[in-house]
Write a structure and sequence with these properties.
Layout (H helix, E strand, L loop, with lengths): L1 H8 L40 H12 L12 H19 L3 H4 L2 H15 L8 H5 L11 H16 L5 H4 L5 H9 L6 H17 L4 H19 L5 H13 L7 H11 L12 H14 L4 H10 L6 H16 L3 H19 L4 H8 L5 H9 L1 H18 L3 H17 L1 H38 L10
Helix pairs in contact: 2-3, 2-5, 3-7, 5-7, 7-10, 9-11, 10-12, 11-13, 12-14, 14-16, 15-16, 15-17, 16-18, 17-20, 18-21, 19-20, 20-21, 20-22, 21-22
């Protein structure tokens, strides 16, 4: 028995069924010692040879140059740059697309992918803080810019067949393109913005995927990292997409507003993309005014408590939303809305109070307030009186006086009634304060007459 166990332990391993299984994984092919040699110009070769020359130029441009030490490979960098420029001229030339077979187009997209898709460097602190004084510049931009231009002209060309091109510009390509929006170089993000917008317009089959991918970028930014360089550019693309939404609006788009756009007011870097976000929000309200209440309540949900500069931006956006809000939607949310506006009116930060008072410069907002003055004026009267009596900024005094005048001309009887109620409230508060002071004086007198032995000392 022991002998059998020993024999089994020394059993030879079985031979593989396929001898190729034991071979190591194939390694990427290495380039020749001097792969980058100048190639002839397109106009110097016969038309029948231009397709093969185009392929050779694509292969040359697929080699990545080392920009960490440009002087070391200056010749290769310049040669590749000139070749890329030749490819741009070739794509622009009339009849060039007839020579681009499906295989050549696939090779072209492969060359673009090799050059564009790369690991981005870690985000710097200046990018996180939004420091635009000295924006980061990608070292390989002399080549990247021309590759982006090549891809843009290929997509924008009327001769490019979308049905054929979608085989190469697929979901994976689009997703990797969107990952580059996190680049710190604003020049690259600008090209990406134009490219993604062109892809969205040309390839209708990719539209739902692009919107879903945008959702995922926003979700990760809001709930995980709160760091992304391209949120503003993505929102700029989204603004034109929302403008093309058909009515009645799909439930998918409304969910996107609730789950992504409104929560984008929360991150600390909100000010960097506020303009683009506000434009998207207004587009939704303009498309469907029934969304106005949803947007206003969303703004109130994420209203800043200690960040005054952010509060000023919220008030400016709120004014634009109210401009597009009908009376029926306004009435549904006016109570919590004007409670918040009342708190803004008495803010010690004069810009917050000023921006809140600017709401009365809008004729539409004043009309909405006038229709509901019986509810709104009692909510705001105390704040207006406090500003008149004690705000430190003279400009706020003047603006408050103008708003009081508007209310007085709007309904003098209601204004007088609110004034009387305010005076009664002030009188009651004064009486309570006097009673409190009197009570404390009695307590102090009793404590003074009490013996020392009855006193309790607290260290």
């Amino acid at each position: 028995m022991l002998t059998k166990i020993i024999k089994r332990g020394h059993r030879k391993p079985s031979k593989p069924d396929d001898p190729t299984d034991s071979k190591p994984d194939p390694q990427p092919t290495t380039s020749s010692p001097n792969p980058m040699e100048p190639l002839p110009l397109f106009q110097n070769v016969a038309v029948s040879d231009r397709a093969s020359l185009f392929l050779r130029k694509l292969q040359l441009c697929s080699f990545l140059c080392d920009f960490s030490n440009p002087s070391k490979c200056a010749r290769e960098i310049e040669l590749k740059r000139q070749t890329l420029l030749e490819l741009v001229d070739f794509i622009d030339s009339s009849g060039s697309h007839k020579l681009l077979t499906p295989q050549l187009q696939e090779d072209f997209i492969r060359m673009v992918s090799v050059n564009l898709f790369r690991c981005l460097p870690p985000a710097s602190d200046s990018a996180d803080l939004g420091d635009d004084d000295e924006p980061y510049q990608e070292p390989s931009w002399p080549h990247l810019q021309i590759v982006y231009e090549l891809l843009l002209r290929y997509i924008a060309s009327s001769e490019t067949d979308a049905k054929l091109a979608k085989r190469f510009i697929d979901h994976i390509f689009v997703l990797r393109l969107m990952e580059l929006f996190d680049s710190e170089d604003p020049r690259e993000r600008d090209y990406l913005k134009t490219l993604l917008h062109r892809i969205y317009g040309k390839f209708m089959v990719h539209r739902p995927f692009i919107r879903k991918a945008m959702n995922n970028v926003f979700y990760r930014f809001i709930f995980e990292t709160q760091r992304h360089c391209g949120i503003g550019e993505l929102l700029e693309i989204l603004g034109s997409i929302i403008n093309g939404f058909a009515l009645p609006m799909k439930e998918e788009h409304k969910l996107f507003l609730v789950r992504a756009l409104i929560p984008l007011h929360k991150p600390k870097g909100f000010w960097a993309y506020h303009h683009q976000l506000a434009y998207c929000i207004i587009q939704f309200v303009d498309k469907d005014y029934h969304l106005a209440e949803l947007v206003i309540r969303g703004l109130l949900k994420y209203w800043p408590v200690t960040n005054c500069q952010k509060e000023v931006l919220f008030l400016a956006e709120l004014e634009e939303v109210l401009e597009a809000t009908p009376a029926s939607e306004f009435q549904r949310c006016m109570l919590p809305l004007f409670r918040q506006i009342g708190r803004c009116l008495t803010s010690a930060h004069f810009q917050v109070a000023q921006q809140a008072l600017y709401l009365w410069n809008s004729e539409h907002v004043v009309n909405l307030i006038a229709q509901n003055r019986n509810v709104i004026l009692p909510l705001l009267f105390d704040a207006l009186e406090k500003n008149t009596q004690g705000h430190w900024n003279q400009g706020i005094h003047d603006l408050t006086a103008n708003v009081r005048k508007i209310f007085q001309e709007m309904d003098s009887e209601l204004f007088k009634e609110c004034q009387e109620q305010y005076l009664e409230k002030v009188t009651r508060a004064r009486v309570l304060e006097e009673q409190r002071e009197l009570t404390w004086k009695k307590i102090e007198a009793v404590a003074a007459t009490a013996g020392a032995e009855d006193m309790v000392l607290v260290n």
